[in-house]
Design brief:
Blueprint lengths: L8 H15 L4 E2 L2 H4 L20 E3 L4 H14 L3 E4 L18 E4 L6 E5 L4 E4 L5 H11 L3 E2 L10 H6 L15 E8 L4 E3 L32 E9 L1 E2 L3 E9 L5 H13 L12 H8 L13 H11 L4 E9 L1 H15 L6 E9 L9 H6 L15 E5 L1 E4 L2 H17 L12 E2 L5 E4 L1 E5 L3 H20 L3 E2 L7 H7 L2 H17 L23
Parallel strand pairs: 2-4, 3-4
Antiparallel strand pairs: 1-2, 5-6, 6-10, 7-11, 8-9, 8-10, 12-13, 12-14, 15-19, 16-18, 16-20, 17-18
Helix pairs in contact: 1-3, 11-12
Bound molecules: adenosine-5'-diphosphate (ADP).
The site of adenosine-5'-diphosphate has 20 residues, from strand 3, helix 5 and strand 10.
Length: 525
């Protein structure tokens, strides 16, 4: 069994005894068999010394137990790493950024404290999964929808804290958060927003409270352990429909994205869009690339191929939720606006008035209809992935520049066609796009070494273009934080000043988001 660095075996044994007293013997895990579950199954360092390993895990069930854990960790200088359900796949799973941390596994804190279908919010503990919350709502016939991440086995708390996304109008999960309860490093309980007053009636309806807003300090952070979260929900819509918009040629993406941004920012389009390219899909089956390769065909040649094959260059499915007459009008208006692009075509999709028998064959639809699912795994091509996810502007020009920049990188690294994946953007957030890459992880050290190198270059090339990742794997947190370098890393210095003030012993999730406590700062890569 590993001990946390700098902690003697005797001291660690004493700390474990105290943890057992606090949560019960059976909820402190130290065997290799148990601890293997808290490693990243798809680690980019699989089988190598740098692979992050926990020293123990502890699973509290109440906020008082969380307070006790923090106090014990402070007394013995034990690094902790908090997870909710630990399904942070592609970004490290349950594993800590700092090897030797004790995992604080909150999955037993799984109470649903309230679901309100009159003003539309839920209050949950970290161990509540999307499935749990969905079932709770269904069993009681409550008139609200959740917005699951795909896959739905993770927790609303963990996913919102990581600023993950779903597919419905409530897709920006951090944006839906209203009111947190947090255990601070000194064991104190803090309630944010209106929760800062006793007996607030609007803790989960009004976000701001009084004075500086601090909620964001607890997202992607190591300043506290979140033990309760308010989340805004969508009132159950009366209907749903979707439709597809296609535009013919490469350059049509510029007016396409301009129209999209107008409709999105006018609240006429509201869900997540994935930009698709039937033409590039075909091109890939012919040995081509999704990216614009320096030695590949020109866009004029690809435009010709699109015409010959009668394939639209760009395409997207748009989804609508709400009263049938409203969503019908929205779709009509969307067609009218995109109709201004010469050669655009449209296809009506599914249309439901609830309750309805819905298409069961599309796992993305299930999620878009507020039902958690594991179906998305069927869409992945096996194996684990390392997520790379830069944010880019919501413009056609940015998409073109990304295709060119990543194409050049792929050529420079001489990556095989099989190693390429669709680098087309999603709209998980308002006002910006995100590219979601999945670099394949394996048990093969050489392939993983190559993937790590590609990853680092992807981060650098993004930064050269003014883009950076919204979230990253535990093994690359320093690298990504490094890119947020304005004014000699003023942001990182500010984060670390706060860290030293609120967690002077540096016990909470050292290394999270590239934030190290003073005593471990030399640890930075
Ligand atoms: P999910 O439950 O969606 O699978 P995780 O439990 O894997 O999400 O959490 C993702 C990340 O968010 C963790 O690695 C951790 O850094 C952070 N995190 C999760 N839960 C908490 C929490 N309750 N308090 C503070 N940070 C958390």
């Amino acid at each position: 069994m590993a001990t946390p660095p700098g902690v003697s075996a005797r001291d660690f044994a004493r700390a474990l005894d105290e943890l057992r007293n606090a949560v019960g013997r059976e909820w402190v895990f130290t065997s290799d068999e148990d601890l293997n579950l808290y490693r990243d199954a798809y680690s980019p360092f699989k089988g190598e010394a740098e692979d992050r390993v926990p020293s123990a895990a502890v699973a509290p069930t109440t906020v008082e137990q969380v307070q006790a854990i923090v106090r014990i960790a402070n007394a013995h200088r034990i690094p902790l790493w908090t997870i909710s359900t630990g399904r942070n796949l592609g970004y490290g799973g349950s594993a800590p950024a700092y090897s030797g941390s004790v995992i604080v596994d909150l999955k037993r804190m799984n109470r649903i404290i309230e679901v309100n279908d009159k003003t539309h919010y839920a209050v949950v503990e970290p161990g509540v999964s999307y499935f749990d919350l969905y079932r709770y709502i269904q069993e009681r016939g409550l008139k609200v929808w959740i917005d699951p991440a795909d896959p739905g086995w993770g927790s609303p708390v963990g996913n919102a804290l990581e600023r993950g996304g779903g597919r419905t109008p409530m897709r920006d999960h951090w944006n839906a958060v209203c009111g947190l309860e947090v255990v601070l490093a000194n064991g104190e309980i803090l309630r944010t927003g209106m929760g800062a007053m006793e007996n607030s009636e609007v803790w989960h309806q009004y976000k701001y409270g009084f004075g500086p807003l601090v909620d964001g300090l607890f997202s992607q952070s190591n300043f506290g352990i979140v033990t309760r979260m308010g989340l805004w929900l969508m009132p159950s819509p009366e209907g749903y429909r979707d439709g597809r918009v296609n535009v013919a040629q490469h350059d049509d993406l510029v007016p396409f994205m301009e129209t999209y941004a107008y409709l999105m920012n006018s609240d006429i389009l509201r869900g997540t869009m994935l930009l698709e390219s039937p033409l590039l899909n075909y091109h890939v089956t012919q040995g081509g690339s999704f990216f614009e390769m320096p030695n590949g065909p020109s866009t004029t040649e690809l435009d010709r191929l699109a015409r010959e094959r009668n394939l639209p260059y760009w395409s997207a499915e748009f989804r609508f939720w709400g009263p049938p007459k409203v969503i019908d009008a929205q779709w009509e208006y969307v067609k009218e606006k995109f109709g201004a692009i010469r050669g655009s075509t449209f296809a009506d999709g599914r249309r439901y008035v609830f309750p309805a028998d819905v298409d069961q064959n599309d796992p993305t639809l299930t999620v878009a209809l507020g039902t958690p699912s594991l179906g998305v795994f069927g869409l992945l091509q096996g194996g684990g992935h390392l997520g790379f996810s830069p944010i880019i502007p919501m413009t056609g020009d940015a998409v073109f520049r990304a295709q060119k920049a990543f194409g050049r990188l792929y050529a420079e690294l001489a990556l095989p066609a099989a190693n390429q994946f669709a680098a087309l953007p999603w709209s998980y957030n308002p006002r910006a796009l995100v590219l979601l890459f999945g670099l394949p992880m394996s048990r093969d050290r050489e392939q993983n070494r190559q993937s790590r190198e590609i990853f680092e270059r992807l981060v650098e090339v993004s930064a050269e273009n003014g883009w950076a990742e919204y979230r990253t794997h535990i093994a690359f947190m320093d690298k990504v934080a490094e890119m947020y370098s304005y004014n000699d890393h003023a942001m990182r210095r500010f984060h670390e000043k706060l860290k030293d003030a609120v967690d002077p012993n540096g016990i909470l999730s050292p290394g999270k988001s590239g934030i190290w406590p003073q005593r471990l700062r030399t640890n930075r890569d």
